[in-house]
Queue: 2 jobs
Job 1
Amino acid sequence: MEDQKIIDLYWSRSETAITETDQKYGKYCYSIAYNILTNNEDAEESVSDTYMAAWKAMPPKRPSILATFLGKITRRLSIDRWRSRNRYKRGGGEIVLALEELEDCVAADQTVEKACERKQLALVFNRFLESLPETERRIFLCRYWYLDSISDIAKYFGFSDSKVTSMLHRSRKKLRAVLEKEDLL
Amino acid sequence: MNSNDILDMVGDAKGTYVWDAQNIRSGSAPATRKKVSAKRSLLIAAMIALMLLLVGCTIAYVQGWFVDFFSAKSETPLSDSQISLIEQNEQQINEAQTQNGWTVELRSALKDNNTAYIIIGITAPEGVDLEPDVVDDVMIEQFTPGNVWPASMPNQSSELVTYPAGVMPSSMQTSWQEDGDGKDNTKNYVLTIEPNIAASTVDPFGANAQWKIHIENLVRTYDDEEYKQELLNTKYKGDYGVMFTHEETQRMKQHEVLVEGIWDFTITFTKQQSVREEGEFLTAPIKTTAEIPWSYGEDLWEVADVRKEITVTSILLEPFSVKISYEPLDQGWGWPNIYFDDGDLDHNDWICACCILKDGSKITLHDWGNGGWGEEHYKLLEPDSPLVLEDVLYIQMPDGTKISKDGTVEYAAKASPPSAALNYLNNTSITDVYVYYADFDADEVEDIAIWYDGAFRAVCILNETGEAEKTFNFEDGVDVYQTYNQRAAEIKHEPNQIRVVETENDIEVIRYFQAEKDGLYLSVGVKYDPNGTEAKWFQSVIDPSVPFDVSEESWKPISEEAYRRIVEDYQVMQYRLIPIS
């Protein structure tokens, strides 16, 4: 079913909206959740929670790309679930490694000095993404949005692991420079 | 802000970018690696054969595989001299071994003193389809120092030094290519070897150096198309943009041992190497800057993330690599990992070293992290395409330093436009700074109006080299605006530009955009009184096909909220304009 028709189902409060969403995007959302949580049960719960969140969000929202709208919800929920699960211990999976890598982008002093509007952060971040060459942008998102492993990313692009690592390091450095320039660190 | 905040911020990436990345992950869009078509490889081979025939060359070079390989890597077509370089340096090996009906053949090799390429051909029994459209890859087990290693290499005394498997660290990559014979059961692999060695002691590909390749089993990895189609015809029938489950994806990836067997090869590199020193560009050490992302200290790798000036003692250009040797850094840097590139955000691209050729073209030199280990202080840069020494005019380092073949060094001009303004700013007691450029292209900045402490305070007039020629402080009086106004009037009204103009009673800051539809220029502006205490916001829609109208009548008042919404909607590089409250 086309995205717009699925969204129409949400707007008309038809219960088939969830069924259609699950049919079309359930696996996509599951793969995002699983990458973060590395656990079937938790991933499925995140997907279920995604549908509930989508039901609440539409209306009034009418996303232009339903897949990424749902994917973002799943990612958000899964990361929160991971944080809650690992509050007192180090968990496993790529998210741990990704967080360690993203330390490159923050100042040494980790106290929050300014309360930054989320919208402003998003604007700055997307401007940063726009400035990246296409391949670097794709690799950056595969790593830090989808939390793919370095070796998987290397396979997607036909690069060596070290090349992917180098490119990610440079992108993180650029991101840090952007955040510093915008006085967000 | 901590890394968790960054992770959250990443979640707000634009949907189109996220989906674009997903297309690569799912394989529904090609990644960047170019794969040469059979038609192209046959055409190249035919062209080379014809060229050789015309010049009466006796070298039987008809395969063109290395030309294909480098053509795929290069952004521009290979030149005649590059093709000649490949032809003249290719070493035909043509050593084949057959196990259980499968033939693995070392076909040819190409090398310089630092890098070697080996073409490995695989011929399956007739009827076995190795076509790239069907088969993801026929793995020859991941090439590692365990199955590709130098059996012996000559040292400085030309004595052969032997090494066991797995000892020699090397960077290795494989890529496949069509072999152009039109047969489904044959395929080529190009193995790239870059040893990380103490080059002062051994010559990895020197005279009579021998390398061993040990291949055990040929394993094919592929998508189970039958299973995939079954899913598409049943469970996902009619779905748009199918996303398989994790389990289904795992089930889909198949690994099939095509044939068991062991193929052992020993390659003796026989082609004469070019004398290393012929490619030396330096007659004396130079200073340049390099990036040090991390250093090796007590706690293993530590983030350093600095640029430091280093002394480069040698820049050796070879056909497939450029070796940059440098003096070790001061004590306290542990074992720094140095990169010869520049991630200056004011330039949209990552700045790499490059070779500028006599015809004006450029070959980028990538620093992928390969180089010496331990006490060997050098980096190996990888060119986009083969380097013919005679074609190179100069090498340019990321900081702009140019080194010609005769050793002449031309250092880059010092202050770049943004730095000039920042240098000025650094010398003042400024707490809250917003810098406005007359043109977003930093190379063409003409002048910079500087707003700080809640008002426009100064303007830098830059000279041709980007240095601050003169700086006017607004607090000195109104008269100082005159020179700036003259310059401001000369600035073209280009899209995505900020123009700062002082009129009789106000200071105008105007942004120009390219509107999304109808090709109209949408502009928004804000006017401040000379003290910057009072602001008014305006909007103007301009048709660029008619003379640009800056009269008051073309501007309509809008609210501050509308102004900010327009600015955000058009995602122009922003410097905040916030009048003091």
Note: Chain A touches chain B through 80 residues (CB under 8 Å).
Job 2
Amino acid sequence: MSANNLLLFLSARGEGSWQQFRAAVEELHLVETETGSSQRDEDGNETGGLPLYQLLRLNLQRLGHVEFFGGASESDWRVSPPALAVSGQRHGKLGVLAGARSPCLMRRFQEAAATLRVETLPFAASPDQIRIFAEDQRALAEVAERAGLLGQDDAPLAILASLPTVDNLSLLREAEVPVGKEWAIDQFSTRTLGWRAALRENAVGATLGLFRFSLRHRKHLLLCVKGRAFEVPGQVGKFIALRHNRRRVFSYEVSDEVLCVPAACRPPFLVERALILCSGKLPSYDRDSGKLRYYEVNRTTAELACALLRQESR
Amino acid sequence: MEKILLIGAAAVALTVTFAVFARRMRRRHKTVVPSAPPEQSRVQASLPGDRGQETVSAAIEHLSTERDEKSGVEGSPVDGEELVEPPTDEALMAPSGNDEVCKDDTAGLEEGEGKTVQSPESPESAIGGETQVDVEVPGENEAVSNLVTRDSLGATIASPADASTEIGAARLDLTTDTEEVKGVEALAGSVARPDAAAPAAPLDSSVEAETRETAPVRTAQAADSEREDSGEGLTRAQKTTRVPRQYRPVVRTAPKRDLPSVPEKERVQRERALALEVRLVFEPGGLCRVSLLPQRAADLPQELLVSSMEGEVELAALQEDWYEEVSLSDVGKLLRTGIEWEAALPEGRTVRWSLSGREIYVLAPHDCFSGFVSASRLVLGEQHVVLSALERGADVLRAIEISGSPEPEVLSAADGMPEGWIGFRRVIPHKPVTPSLAGDILDALCPLADTEIVLKGGIRIGRSTWLKEYPPMIQLRGHDDSRAEVLIDGQGAEKDESGAYTSPGWDLPGDHSIWCVSASKSYSIGVGLESWEPWDAYAWSWGESQAEPEFSRPAICGVLVRSPRNVARGRRPAVRSASNPILIGTGVGEIEICRTPPGVRTNVAIGFPSFDPVWAVPADALHSDKRVAKVLLVGSPRLPEQASFASGADSAPKTKHARRERTLRARAWCSVILDAGRKGLQPEPNTAEISAVWKQYRRTAKLVWRTLR
């Protein structure tokens, strides 16, 4: 059994609870078959200790197959409609199959794409990525229509162009700084790109800093700005802090069209989704440099991603 | 000589007359001549008196709809069945063959052996159907009504019709529904207890059928004899006229295909008798004591007076579900012949308890009681006590040995066993034994293999539903019996190398059932969702759940970008270079301006045109560098719609605001094209065909512009 079956199950159900998702991971014996290789969590840490269901959830989210929690409407998870995400390549167009899958749909897709080159890429803790290549966008649009898929032209750019900048504080919700000595407090260091212990006074008095408050199973990530605190997604908060300290972490290899970022500064998942759709491949982790590498990212997409994250690629 | 002949003739005439009379009496009154009541119990047989003419026709309406085709005999009543109909004449005359058995097991019913026939009972689950056993009436029996009679034609009179159409129907439905299986199993389990079966009417047609006509009569009689306390007080009921049944073992056979189940609306609801269990307790000193445990329903009073042919018995509640045990002096005889108790309730109802008579009782530990309580059969690994009629002791001992049990301890009358009975203590079977196909009381000593049907693998999308093309693997877990017969949807299943069973059509969409001798299961194959609708998962947010949705911003769903909520739905996004953000369509007024993300310095702009764009034009063509700026062809090179605006087509908007909006859009459309033309911007690709198309747009724009002026 593989994560492909998990996606088939999720697609058959449509939406459900977190318990159902976890139960499906167990029942499909994915623990026995999925071996995580160079998996990292949202903080960019090695996921040796991360449960498989969390890895699966993160990958399904990154690849645009399933939305979880806040994006899943009234459920804990909800499968995205099947779509062909089209992006421009150096030579021709690339279509990446994303969203729900069913045996019937997959047969239709195979029949519709019979005349084009189709590639299936396996990844650990993730459903297989299916890529289809064509000379022009029209061919891919026809494939999508025949297979009953929705089409999204210029998917990476369209997603990025629909996102706010990371430092748009008007989108953040103000919160209270937790009180109590039992809270473990850490501050994100833009220098080391890691967490260091801090005090509540640091958080309250910080001009701008990202703080993590932990108490047993509870964890709060707060952006503390001059006495005020805002709830913020972890990766968004890191880039806000990096922006504040004018720290640049992105690098772009023009010749290879590879965008690199330290694993600790993994982009927010919507930005990462756009970057992954450029190639249809999950980023690889370079142990030597400690960086994530996103492939086949054209310059325009890389620049827009960096601009949204208030980073300039080197 | 003549005297001798006369005497002989008279004797024959008397015998015949008596037989006819007895037969008529049995048919009419459905009772038997009660034996002398024992001194202690003060049980009085309740003669219903004029219970009404129990006609065969009246009984027919209660007959089970389940009828074996071969025998035409209907199954016997099941546990709790109140109505035990006499078989029809046809049934009486029908040959036995592979008859559908009533649920009730029939102890010792072996064709042609002339053994005492026990009243039917259903100790076993009805799963897979039962096989009716031919029974034969022994010559003697004081409880004539308990016995199956073989008529003069030699036809075997089957046990009474299976009054439980519900269970009978459920039996057929069992193959398709695990829940039903469980329910029926539970029911059958209760039936399985020797005394828990419904009063299967004696097979000699003296089966009593409680018709609706007679019940009120008895109720009235009971009411007449009611004492002061209508609620809690003991109600003196009339002697029951119901004759105890004989036990009939249930034979577990494979379900028959294509047998329609009884529709729900046609199933006859019958009142079931309560269980009357046999209990054995070992007392200090090593003696054992055999008693009866009457079941108690929730609506029954704490104290109750029940009647039987042997007299009256007072019941006192012990627990919510049970009355206190009852010790009877003649329990030995009653265990053979069976017991029927009846009580009238103040509200006019009657409640019955039934224990079918038999020669062998299997007792096992009970959750609610100490000692050993009657069970349907031996269970592997469990300790049991087996009660056996003296004459069957050797058979029982042999069967116990076959089950792999260590040598049991024998209990005799000196140990407290009832008269005529012998007990076997510490019976612990370790080997499963296949029960007989014909049904035998000794089947109760055949522990079934602890086999479990396991459904593994596949993709389960529901409680017992698997996704089409991803069915489960069907395997047997437990006792390894490679010869075990497995049926899927009534068809023999083949076992492959992996140990999975398959049969034709086993993985097709629909409901399926699996059957083996000791278990059954059902599953379904279904199709999951095949259409998925997009929704606004993230609108101008980074994925946090608390973000307020932005109605003027596009939303993301998977890899899709959806138009903002404040514009018409269904528009697909168009991503353009910021240098050519204006999209032009074929229709006059089809213009969309793509915008760059706010606060971002980028060359990317996004818009949501309601049309299929043809051109992308620079924002400020008049001030652009015509050496660099181009009019980009972004769609198929289609000609403009010829002057549809200028001609005042019928599609003109009706309201003033709409007309103004349309005019403004038309002006913008014309202005962008004319400015680009005025600047001299060239189309790209700059082929003759495309240039000609662009020229046509300029002409149309000029014409419309003049019209607007």
Note: The CA atoms of residues 224 and 277 of chain A lie 33 Å apart.
